[in-house]
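TL;DR need structure tokens for one chain.
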Amino acid sequence: MLRLNLTFLIYLSVFKISFCPKPPRMVQHFSYEKPRSEAILEMKNFLEDESFPIKQYSPEDGFIFTGYKVFDWGEGKRLLAVTVHIHDKVTITGMGKIEIPTSGIGDPEDMLRMKSMDKLPYNIQKRIFLPLGDKLDSLGYKKLKHWP
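>> reply
TL;DR here they are.
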């Protein structure tokens, strides 16, 4: 029995088996019915209220870039930064970092490393990125069914 389990573990380590498709990109699109200058200021205030540090704010171009906001729950930290583009629609794009455990012998500080990605796992997206869209709906922005 032990030999069978060992063989199965070796099989799993040799072949990458995945039952999940790739997570979707972190992009949300919204329609808006107000002047663009009002919408960009409202988005800036919204992101500040959500504790995102604003790194670049360009109202004349309809662009906002935030720094990373830390979400610390469960095992490790998750970080999310967003960009907002406002033209004929509002486009919010998320960029994520996730703390992943690394194996090895050595300094305990090196046991967790940050990995940057534009597609966080979907269960994490549901907790930190997708709720932004629900909150924007209450401000009058309507989510567009758009892919990608």
